[in-house]
Prior knowledge:
This protein is mainly alpha-helical and 100 residues long. It contains four helices and two strands; from the N terminus they run ααββαα. Strands 1-2 form a two-stranded parallel ribbon. It has helices at residues 6-15, 18-21, 52-64, 79-97, and strands spanning 25-27, 42-44. The protein folds into two domains: 6-44, no CATH class; 52-97, no CATH class. This is IS1 family transposase. It comes from Hymenobacter gummosus. GO terms for molecular function: DNA binding; transposase activity.
Amino acid sequence: MGCRGRRTARKLWRRLPSAYRQAWCYTDLWEAYTGVVPRRQHLAGYGRGTTNHIERFNATLRARIGRLVRKSLSFSRSQKLLDASIKLFLHDYNATKHPR
């Protein structure tokens, strides 16, 4: 959660598990990623099919969590409630898609 600036990108990068920070990172051409993701593992661009999985998941989030689409139809009274609703969705999504 947050703006798409370099500061938020750094915060996200620090919070990733170390194994994820060693993997290839496929991103769009947003400027904030260039100073955060190491060049040797960063592939940015469109049209190569590299970001299709995450874009598909983003579409799933918007389709199933109305709060992410329009503030006038569904909204959270606070950032804490929005975070909680997304965490609940992710928990349910992971439990039903990838049961143990």
